[in-house]
Amino acid sequence: METTEEILARFAEVRAHTERLAAPLSPEDQTVQSMPDVSPTKWHRAHVTWFFETFLLAEHEPGFAPFQDRYWFLFNSYYEGVGPRYTRSMRGAISRPGAHDVADYRADVDARVTDLVDRVDGGTLEKLRPTIELGFHHEQQHQELLLMDIKHVLSLNPLQPVYAGAPRLPGTPDRLGWVGFDGGLVEIGATGEGFHFDNELPRHQQWLQPYRLADRLVTNGEWLDFMTDGGYRRHDLWLSDGWGRVQAERWDSPFYWHEEDGVWFEHTLHGTHPVDPALPVTHVSHYEADAYATWAGHRLPTEAEWEHAAVTQSATEENVADLDAFHPRAAGPATGRLRQLLGDCWEWTSSAYLPYPGFHPAPGAVGEYNGKFMSSQMVLRGGSALTPAGHTRAGYRNFFPPGARWPMTGVRLASGD
Question: CATH 3.90.1580.10: does it fit domain 178-415?
Answer without folding.
Answer: yes
